[in-house]
Amino acid sequence: MPETASAPSSSSPPASPAPTLPELFVAFALIALCGFGGVLAWSRRMLVEERRWMTAPEFDDAYALCQFLPGPNVVNLSVVFGRRIRGLPGAAVALVGLIGPPFLVVTLIGFAYARLGETAALQRMLAGIAAAAAGLVLGTCAKMARPLRKDRLGLLVVLMTFASVGVMRGPIYAALAGLVPLSTAIAWVRR
User: 186 burial class (0-12, 13-18, 19+ CB within 10 angstroms)?
Assistant: First the structure.
């Protein structure tokens, strides 16, 4: 039997009733169609802030799991969330909602880019879009890190991950191999 949205935490707004299959499709289609440059920001905004289908800690936990799994993070998130809310049909509907509409849009844009991709105006536009996408990622990271303000060990793991991958440019898998067991041990001891 599929699970429903769990009770809200004390730091998050109350969760809304579990979405129907059509609501799942529409939500993930909107996430995908609004998510130029990446859909993490839009998925968090839609699922946590607007629809309140998840609390912020639930989103962070689900996204952490999906980041660790192979494949695109938000695609994994759509399947995990859809399955949690509406079982296998929910996973399929959320996945189709997330990848179907963008597939059509990207196919059309691909045809246009093949004809116009080398124009200077388009190259300048793409540079501006890249800057905006980087800002979206940084803003979402800041929102996801807020619960760690009072968690010194969690913040230490974040900083170690950033230092190993972002500063020292180490391979992501090496950082995961060392830091996932460390953060899991920290969480295990605390509970």
Answer: middle
Could you read off the pLDDT tens digit of each residue along the chain, which spans 191 residues?
444 444 444 455 557 889 999 999 999 999 999 876 678 888 999 999 999 999 999 999 999 899 888 999 999 999 999 999 999 999 999 999 999 998 999 899 888 888 887 888 888 888 888 888 888 888 888 888 888 878 888 888 888 998 999 899 999 889 889 988 998 888 888 87
User: What is the residue type of 186?
Assistant: I
Do residues 179 and 135 share a domain?
Answer: no
Question: Chain centroid to CA 115: how far?
Answer: 32
Q: Is residue 44 part of a domain?
A: yes
In this structure, are 61 and 122 located in the same domain? yes
Q: How far apart are CA 100 and CA 92, in angstroms?
A: 11
- What letters, b where the CB count within 10 A reaches 16 and e where it falls short, cover 42-80? bbbbbbbeeebbbbbbbbbebbeebeeeeeebbbbbbbb
Q: Indicate whether 106 and 186 sit together in one domain.
A: no
pLDDT score, position 14:
52
Find tokens 């799994």 and name the residue: 69
Residue numbers of the domain that contains 140: 21-148
Note whether residue 3 is domain-resident.
no
User: Looking at the structure, do residues 105 and 57 belong to the same domain, yes or no?
Assistant: yes
Residue type, 121: A
Whether residue 172 sits in one domain with residue 143: no
